[in-house]
Design goal:
The complex is a heterodimer of chains A (280) and B (64).
Chain A (H helix, E strand, L loop, with lengths): L5 H9 L3 E5 L6 H8 L7 E6 H10 L11 E10 L1 E5 L8 H9 L7 E4 L5 H13 L4 E4 L3 H10 L4 E5 H9 L4 E5 L26 E8 L4 H16 L1 H9 L3 E2 L4 H22 L5
Parallel strand pairs in A: 5-6, 5-7
Antiparallel strand pairs in A: 2-9, 3-9, 3-10, 4-7, 4-8
Chain B lengths: L1 H27 L5 E5 L21 E4 L1
Classes of the chains: A alpha+beta (280), B alpha+beta (64).
Chain lengths: 280, 64
């Protein structure tokens, strides 16, 4: 039972196979552009990420789609849990100690590695700067894994990592997790407190993936897809499957998904402009 | 008068017909495979969001 995949469950419920079509490029934008230009008949759907739908409208000068006009939102799918982490060789044992310690350090010493410029991990660090009144300086890597390697090697003191890349090292004691960036603790690692509960009230940065269709897809088809996706991801098997992959199942209504996109576009625009983030 | 009543009823009849058609379309959906676009390379680091959707039996992967 547990070995069956989410797609199998979805295929079974829909009575049709899902044909996975990789359209890699530009941080997920190529795939989203292909979805936006597809026939809105319910036979083309795909993944939309928080970065491609809510960050890139500010970060990219040319976006090949309009997030608020070109898609029909079906359901959020998963949240990618993220943690602020520190080298175990440094004194802070928790978020409160870190904030006190960081305020006494030179910003030149407080670099944080992430999976790259404009990622949720990068934005999480900048939001921390803005909300906690500290100055940690971004160091972009090509993915979370090399950032984790440099953190363990002592090249950088801090990293903001997704748990898929960092949890093994955290549980092995090679990396110390200071706090989760989401408002609530993650079922993937419930032992790690949130940044919000341990020093920065209201702090909440999430990276998510959702499922979208081209704008104009009939509402009854969107409703059917939503019902099946919610049933699969909302099941205990679906939740367990996602946690095993380092993710949190987070199905939603189509309206809630659209509301998330609508609210996050201006939020990230403010953070990006305040931090002066630019793609090189 | 009878003609006027029939004309007045026409939009309702059309609406009922359209609703019936939509219901049938919904009931018939899906009747062919659904293409699931993933904006990442199969072996790339962020492939994992889609990995749980990979199926051993009923789904297939197409890379471009």
């Amino acid at each position: 039972m547990a070995s069956r995949t989410i797609s199998q469950r979805l295929s079974e419920r829909l009575g049709q196979p899902l044909i996975m079509d990789n359209r890699a490029g530009a941080g997920g934008m190529v795939g989203l552009e292909a979805i936006a230009k597809s026939t809105p008949d319910g036979y083309t759907i795909g993944i939309g990420t928080s970065g491609a739908l809510t960050v890139n409208p500010t970060l990219r000068s040319k976006l090949p789609y309009d997030p608020l006009k070109d898609f029909a939102y079906i359901s959020t799918m998963v949240v990618n849990p993220i943690a602020l982490t520190i080298s175990p060789s440094l004194p802070p044992q928790n978020m409160k100690e870190f904030l006190t310690w960081a305020k006494g350090q030179s910003s030149a010493k407080l670099s944080f590695g992430t999976a790259g410029t404009g990622t949720a991990m990068h934005l999480a660090g900048e939001v921390l700067n803005q909300m906690a009144g500290i100055t940690i300086v971004h160091v972009p890597y090509k993915g979370s894994a090399p950032a984790a390697v440099d953190l363990m090697g002592g090249q950088i003191p801090l990293a903001v990592l997704d748990l898929a890349a960092g949890l093994t090292h955290i549980r092995a004691g090679k990396i110390r997790a200071l706090g989760m960036t989401s408002l609530n603790r993650s079922p993937v690692a419930p032992e790690i407190p949130t940044i919000a509960e341990t020093g920065v009230p209201g702090y909440d940065v999430r990276s998510w993936f959702g499922i979208v269709a081209p704008a104009g897809t009939p509402p009854e088809i969107i409703a059917r897809l939503n019902a099946e996706i919610v049933a699969v991801l909302g099941s205990q098997e679906g939740k367990d499957r996602m946690v095993a992959s380092g993710l949190e199942a987070s199905p939603s209504t189509p309206q809630a998904f659209l509301d998330t996109v609508r609210s996050e576009i201006p939020r990230w625009a403010g953070v990006i402009k305040a931090a002066g983030i630019k793609l090189e | 008068m009878r003609v006027v009543l029939k004309l007045a009823a026409l939009p309702l009849a059309l609406l009922a017909l359209a609703s019936s058609g939509a219901a049938q379309a919904q009931a018939a959906y899906p009747n062919k495979p659904i293409r699931f676009m993933v904006g990442f390379r199969p072996a790339a680091a962020p492939t994992w969001p889609a990995a749980p959707f990979r199926s051993a039996s009923r789904s297939a992967w197409v890379s471009r």
